[in-house]
Amino acid sequence: MISDVRLRRCLAESWGLTTASIEVHNGGMNSATWFVDHGDKRWVAKAVAPASARSFAAGLAVAAALEAAGVPAGAPVATGRGEYVVEAGGVPLALLTWVPGAELSGVGPGDQRMIGGTLARVHRALLDVPVPGGERFHWVDPRGEHLGIRPWVRGAVAAAVSAYDGLDPGTLTWGLLHTDPAPEAFRLDRATGVCGLIDWSTGMTGPLLYDLASAVMYAGGPGHARPLIEAYLGQGVVPRAEVERGLAVMLRFRWAVQADYFARRIVLGDLTGIAGAGENEAGLADARAGLAWSGSTAGSIGTGLG
Q1: Beta strands 91-97 and 135-136: pairing type?
Q2: Within 10 A of 218 (CB to CB), how many other CB atoms are there?
Q3: Are strands 204-207 and 135-136 parallel, antiparallel or unpaired?
Q4: CA angle, corner 118, sides to 117 and 124, nearest 5?
Q5: Segment-wise mean pLDDT, segments of 10 residues, the chain, 306 residues
Q6: DSSP E strand boundaries for 185-274
């Protein structure tokens, strides 16, 4: 997205990093990233597609607010002119604070409790935080042309959206969402015991249950994520009754989001962040399996808390 020469020039002109070393990272599917080192300091440079500039800026604002509240979030570093985002050849670019530590796996109960507790603390810290340019949940349109890519996709996505609507979303607890709290977004500094949450790509307000359902999905579903769910509930951000009522339905909706996402990538031929088209196909296949399972058991899987 950005040449090495242009990146170096931008880092020097905007942030005064004239002699920094740069190493390609590119750990995400929707952005390009680089490690930027100067002396004993490290940052992450992140670029996104021009069409994502507004959501990118909103996500950076959320990260800044969260870090100000005491949770490491990869907050943006202001330029000499006080800007968080600059254009490098028409491409939005930001320099992010490095969050020390190691990413979590979400496999064992210790990691799960850390994920659930951290997610709840993040949600609490962001309650009532205004974000200019923010969006409102949700973005899945069952009428989208890309959902016609396979015979099963549109019907499965539409059914999941309908089930979500049946929750009466206005009755749920709303706040700022991460939207994709995968285990690798949680970074634990074992020396201090502090866990941060990075990769804020948007400033979206929605049901907090969506973030919890996403974390549970990555942990293998409610039956495998009891420590995560209990740690989240222990913070009291979302009532237990709400989680009992809505987690299964929201998990089904989360799988619909994955189907929508990979169907769109396949139609557009988007290979950002992956080695080949087969990874998009695998993501869509996983979504089909998740939708089939959650759709057939949505009334009975509960939260794994019984």
Answers
A1: unpaired
A2: 20
A3: parallel
A4: 90
A5: 90 95 83 94 96 94 97 97 94 97 94 98 95 93 97 98 97 97 96 96 96 97 96 97 97 98 96 89 97 70 49
A6: 186-189, 194-197, 204-207
Round to whole Å and give the CA distance between 291 and 31.
Answer: 27
Query: Residue 251, by phi and psi: left (phi above 0), alpha (psi -120 to 50) or beta?
Result: alpha
Q: What is the SS3 assignment for 209?
A: helix
| Of the candidates 86, 83, 77, the residue with the CA atom closest to the CA atom of residue 9 | 86
The amino acid sitting at 214 is S
**Single pTM value for the model:** 0.93
DSSP state of 97: E
Neighbours of 289 (CB within 10 A): 10
What is d(CA 249, CA 24) in angstroms, rounded to the nearest whole number? 39
Tell me the two tokens of residue 288.
């089909």
Is residue 96 within 8 A of residue 78, CB to CB? The reply is no
Biggest CA pair distance of the chain: 59
pLDDT of residue 51: 92
> Can you read off the two tokens belonging to residue 269?
């031929």
